[in-house]
Amino acid sequence: MVKTTDYESRAENQWCPGCPNFGILTALKQALVTLDKAPHEVCLVSGIGQAAKLPHYLKCSFFNGLHGRAIPAATGIKIANPDLVTIVTTGDGDCYGEGGNHFLHALRRNPDITVIVHNNRLYALTKGQASPTTPVGTRTRLQFSGVEAYPIQGLATAIVHNAPFVARGFAGEIDGLAKLIGQAIETRGFSLIEVIQPCITWGSHPVSWYRDRIELLPADYDRHDRDTALSLALTQGEQIPIGVLYEGALRPLFAQHYRTRVSEGPLAALPPIEQSKIEARLGRFKGE
Amino acid sequence: MLIAGAAGEGIQTIGDVVARTALAAGNAVFSTKEYESRIRGGHNSYWIRVREVPGNAPRQTADVLLALNDRAMERYVDVVQRDGLLIAETGEDPRTVTVPFRQIAVERFGAEIYANTIAAGALIATLGLKFVALAGTLAVTFATKGENIVATNIAAAQEGYELAKNRLLGRGFTTLPNRGKSHFLISAHEVIPLAAAYAGCRFISAYPMSPSTGIITALAKDEELGVFVEQAEDEIAAINMAIGASYAGARAMTATSGGGFALMAEGISLSGMTETPLVIVLAQRPGPATGLPTRTAQEDLLFAIHAGHGEFPKAVLAPADPQDAFVKTVRAFDLADRYQIPVILLTDQFLADSRFSYTSFPLPPPPTGDGFADAAAIREYHRYRLADDGISPRLYPGQSEHLVCVDSDEHDELGHISEELRRVRPAMVRKRLTKLDGLRNEICPPEGFHLSGAETIVIGWGSTRGGIREAVENLRATGTPIGAIHFTELWPLPEFSFPEGVCYITVEGNSTGQLARLLTSEYGIKIDGLISRTDGLPITAETVERGVDGQDH
After folding, report:
1. Which of B228, B318, B421, B525 is least surrounded, with the fewest CB atoms within 10 Å of its CB?
2. Which residues in chain B touch residue A78, judged by CB atoms under 8 angstroms apart?
């Protein structure tokens, strides 16, 4: 049995003390332990930002790549080794800003990866500028007269594209978040969890402000009702619905055709191509 | 010979059919194309060189011109030799063999679409090749379209053939014998996908961009090669997917051209920092920006060598021809794996679209091993363990219980972010750059050609070798003491002693002398002149001969 201590990383944590990111880290560990996944079976993939540092704080294989490019890297990783539980830890800037195009195309491709967006609705590492999810009108350390552009609706976008699993979590609700992450990992196909992660340094509201407003979805909520899911995803009012908003109908996984034809396992395990296959193909270029 | 017309007139089909027919009749064939970036209209041309022994280099003059329309005739008539032939529907020039392709197509075969095949028949007749060879090629070309289409095309070709043959009577034009030799006719971009698969490539992600698109297309078409192919949303995704796949154990590549390569620059740096092997084909076309999308150039040499921010080792290889492209592609994967670096394969539109002849096509040995360490032999795994040669043992995630942690930030031996400036940072910088020493020792020195006694040496790189060598042979035949040095591996540059006391001229498909600047900075030699071609067309023997004549030395 895998234990929480198996995931203890010795790397020094660089997050601000008390940051809700710690809650996401704990929930992710809990989820992996509950699923009995060993560290070497897991690959965390990230870009740049505070959320993207998470892989260092959880002992498993990880690829901490470029800003905004975690999703394409994760897509390549999952193709090369489909046995890996592949999870992207990203922020609202990394995922919807720098990497927005990749997010859209992952929704088209449906790779079997889980994307956890730590949404603090601003840029923290670069010290408080607007992010693609900052509400209109918010004054920041760069948008001095207030943000003019409308926020990206990541969850709604995923629902519109029939993503297999779309959820909103809250970093202050660790047990609930761990359950959501576990369900996301077990989903066959692309799963998205946007986590409300209030920034305690640059944010405009404390954690308690969000805690007062979150509301769990009722037990009899229909996860397949796309219209309701969309309206809940877009809710910006006094109540913020938390839970699995939507489960799209199962559809073929990315690379299914290749998997069926060539290999179900890691590409590194494939035998070398026979020389005769290449010679035969070169032979087709020969004049007779 | 030269086939010229507008896009959409079927030049490609005529050219392929004529080239294959000459090949099937035992000749060595070389073909090259130039075309505009459009689907219909404009000017396209297809050059075919037929010889007894391979003449794998482009020319600027032709013995026969097949002009599919009046504008094509006007534009290209000057390249035809004085004793050459023109094939056209009409014309005043005494060299013209008139064959009204369209009229015959409509009147005899009921559709203008057969005009091409009639023209191909006429062209084959001017070469004096037997019609049966053409009929054979047509049967193969149209095999998938059914017996009727094959039969009509053969009949149409025969009509053109007989008509041209009769109108040629008394002109005494070339009659090519059947030389009975069998040649491979292949382009570099037809070779690279096969060589990649042979080298163990399992993953390619790319965004379509001329002139690189043929590579990903060939791998997608031939599923039996077992390479996973993905058309990425952009070049940034393409390179990051390939790096992800390589990290997770698959030999991976991408292919692009100038603008796409520019978008990949950050990814190349990522490959260097994370020490993830990657092969990138950079098929050059003239820039800057969108430039001339369908023409050729050698403008990205220094860009390729310097691509990516920060300092890290990489290799840049530039094959001279399709056979060399096979060798270099295999080498690219091998070097990328063993040194855990990005390797750039520099080709261009000329190499992509020109077919060369070879009497044999021997395969080089495949890369040895898979580039991964034996996980069982490692007790405690550090992805970036400091090693004397800079090369740390590489495992892929999931290969064993060892964790594989990589980071684009500066990192310690375990792969964790580090801002330890006194020990970690200097050690990691040294480790990465130390790999260059071993790499440099493996790089092939340039090839010398008629160096002894040469008073002038022309230096070229990549795809221009054929034209340069032909020029050197021609100039030597008229008494000019000239030789050539040719580079096909350009970074890191190997040890090399340049002959002293000679005049050096670089021959380059760029206007600023990028190779000259590189050689001056790396070897400290003085380059006396530059022969440059920047109109988007390939460097021919004529370019070099005229250039050598025009130099002040």
Report:
1. B421
2. 248
